[in-house]
Amino acid sequence: MPAMLAAKFTVLHLSQSPSPQSSFRLGIRPSPAARARSVAPRAAASATAVSAKPAAASSPLVADRKVVRIGLPSKGRMAEQTLSLLKSCQLSVRQLNPRQYTADIPLIPNLEVWFQRPKDIVRKLQSGDLDLGIVGFDIVSEYGEGTEDLVVVHDALDFGHCRLSLAVPKEGIFENIITLEDLLKMPEWTEERPLRVVTGFGYLGDKFLREKGFKHVRFLSADGALESYPPMGMADAIVDLVSSGTTLRENNLKEIDGGVVLQSQATLVASRKSLHKRKGVLEVTHELLERLEAHLRATAELMVTANMRGNSAEEVAERVLSQTSICGLQGPTVSPVYCRRDGKVDLEYYAINVVVPQKLLYKSIQQLRSIGGSGVLVTKLTYIFDEETPRWRNLLSELGL
Ligand SMILES: Nc1ncnc2c1ncn2[C@@H]1O[C@H](COP(=O)(O)OP(=O)(O)OP(=O)(O)O)[C@@H](O)[C@H]1O
Ligand SMILES: O=P(O)(O)OC[C@H]1O[C@H](OP(=O)(O)OP(=O)(O)O)[C@H](O)[C@@H]1O
Ligand SMILES: [Mg+2]
């Protein structure tokens, strides 16, 4: 089992040290009213928080369902990238009409696709109306609220990279505020005049500031254009997603040291109950995981083929292995290239195949040339399947299987 899981829901990842996004601790119950209102004052950080866990009860209909369901983002920047990732894994989603909320993946017949808003994917995983989903870790953390019902099966789908971060104005009373500690120590924040923070992430924002020791905080909940609130005088700080930092910069805001609440990227999430109880869910998860892992592994690599003169396969292999960047996954594949000369079959060249990291491509070509390689072909890889999918092993162990 990998090291993880400060969060109550499980995040499976490969390294022994927790990935940045999974190191965030969840656990405090949120203030429920905040999300229902659009720009309404939220509970101060010091107030008692109340549970907003969605009802766990499944209707008989949910239990009766025979097909497996996956929720995919219906709109926004995640929607297109999710479909394109699946397509790259030969799992093209077939949607008959763009206004239809349901679709299928012909290659996995017992899987139904439902297009939903990301936060609804998380809610429906919890209610049992979906079994699997692809959403940002930010949304899983915010709307999952630390529930044990969710298992993050793949925590790094390599798109939708962003961070949830606290930002304040560059100027005025914040001019010399560089760290979260500086912000905490500002004498301005009192019970009567708390630090006003606008966010769409009430649960995570509230929990973060409480844990950092902020006593006098008032949250405002809003869905978009949060960067406009401080310049309009409606808030002192924001907790919002940041990627390039352009939106902050263009609105005269700055991040501060220690102010990152969470690192996020797209994840594959499953309902723990479905994994245990619904027929077919584990098998579909296995196939998705295998394809996603093998594909994401392959995107970082290229297949290089070249011809090389030599006296024997071993002698060619010797030359290739003397170069650091062209050793391949396990070593080069060296095969004889037969040609006809003076009416006889002759062996003068060998073809070598090596998988090289994209980053090292140019260096690899240089090294190949330096040892006599010619006719170099470079091909993209679709998959690199290992003997075993590490995340699958981790998932089985998490489920006690
Ligand atoms: N600037 C960004 N760069 C990269 N990923 C982002 C960025 N903003 C958000 N994301 C990721 O994409 C997900 C969806 O964000 P998106 O902005 O498409 O939806 P939304 O904000 O919920 O909807 P909308 O902006 O249409 O109101 C987020 O939950 C987050 O994981
Ligand atoms: O650091 P940057 O690359 O500038 O990206 C950050 C911006 O992206 C998101 O907004 P989005 O574009 O989704 O608009 P929204 O406020 O309508 O959600 C986020 O809420 C920030 O405003
Ligand atoms: Mg947005």
From TrEMBL:
It is an enzyme of class 2 (transferase). One of its GO terms (cellular component) is chloroplast. It is found in: Plastid, Chloroplast. Keywords: Amino-acid biosynthesis, Chloroplast, Glycosyltransferase, Histidine biosynthesis, Plastid, Transferase, Transit peptide. It comes from the Eukaryota. Its cofactor is Mg(2+). Its EC number is 2.4.2.17. GO terms for biological process: L-histidine biosynthetic process. Its main location: plastid. Residues 298-382 form the Histidine biosynthesis HisG C-terminal domain. InterPro entries: ATP-PRT_HisG_long, ATP_PRibTrfase_cat, ATP_PRibTrfase_CS, ATP_PRibTrfase_HisG, HisG_C, N-reg_PII-like_a/b, N-reg_PII/ATP_PRibTrfase_C. Gene3D superfamilies: 3.30.70.120, Periplasmic binding protein-like II. The keyword Repeat does not apply. It catalyses: 1-(5-phospho-beta-D-ribosyl)-ATP + diphosphate = 5-phospho-alpha-D-ribose 1-diphosphate + ATP. The keyword Plastid applies. Pathway: Amino-acid biosynthesis; L-histidine biosynthesis; L-histidine from 5-phospho-alpha-D-ribose 1-diphosphate: step 1/9. Belongs to the ATP phosphoribosyltransferase family. Long subfamily. NCBIfam families: hisG, HisG_C-term. Catalyzes the condensation of ATP and 5-phosphoribose 1-diphosphate to form N'-(5'-phosphoribosyl)-ATP (PR-ATP). HAMAP family: HisG_Long (MF_00079). PANTHER family: ATP PHOSPHORIBOSYLTRANSFERASE, ATP PHOSPHORIBOSYLTRANSFERASE ATP-PRTASE. This is ATP phosphoribosyltransferase.
